[in-house]
Amino acid sequence: MSEDSLGGAMMVKKRILRIGVLLLSLILLMSLYTSVFASPEVLPETVTSTAEGYVTLLAPEQLTSSTTNKSLPIAASAPEGTVVTVYRYSYTAGNYQKVVVGEVPLESVVGSTTLFAGRTDLTPGLNKFLIRGAKDDETYTVIPFEVNVLNEGFMDRIKGVINIILAK
């Protein structure tokens, strides 16, 4: 066999090897993609849990709270492997929509720490949220909660009234 034909055979083997590695990588990627499900982009206003225990809201501590802060830390605990997603109620659409921070949904698969944490901006007035912890598409827990953003002037008036009451 000539040196040219050996070189050509080696190039063909390298090309076949590259194609094989590419196909194997593609198959692995597709299998990972199909094993992880995505939470729905939108949930109806009347959504209810299909199971209990897939998420526990840690922050905010109350299901109804008020603040003057412009952002909200959200924390939850969930079993390892649970997909936790945060939704905000859209008054114009009449449903809950995934919260997106930057271009990334506020959603994560909980790891061995069993903790989920995120932060989202608040709008003035009543902000309605829902946190969803899901084992799969049909098995999930939802917890609705509300945060009312008060303006600074309102809080100053409340502080003034408290000071008057305490001064007596």
Describe the structure.
This protein is an alpha+beta fold. The chain has helices at 3-35, 152-167; strands spanning 42-44, 56-59, 64-67, 71-77, 83-90, 95-98, 100-101, 104-105, 107-109, 115-121, 125-134, 140-149. Strand 7 (100-101) and strand 8 form a beta hairpin. The chain starts with a helix and ends with a helix.
Summary tags:
29% helix, elongated, Immunoglobulin-like, 168 residues, alpha+beta, 7-stranded mixed beta sheet, 3-stranded antiparallel beta sheet
Tally the structural domains: 2
Superfamily (CATH H level) name of the largest domain: SoxY domain
CATH class of the largest domain: Mainly Beta
Estimate the helix proportion, in percent: 25-40%
- The name CATH uses for the topology of the largest domain is Immunoglobulin-like
Major β-sheet annotation: 7 strands, mixed
Unreliable runs: 30-35
CATH architecture of the largest domain: Sandwich
Strand content: 35-45%
Multimer state: single chain
Average pLDDT for all residues: 85
Class computed from helices, strands and strand pairing: alpha+beta
Number of strands: 12
First-last Cα distance: 108 Å
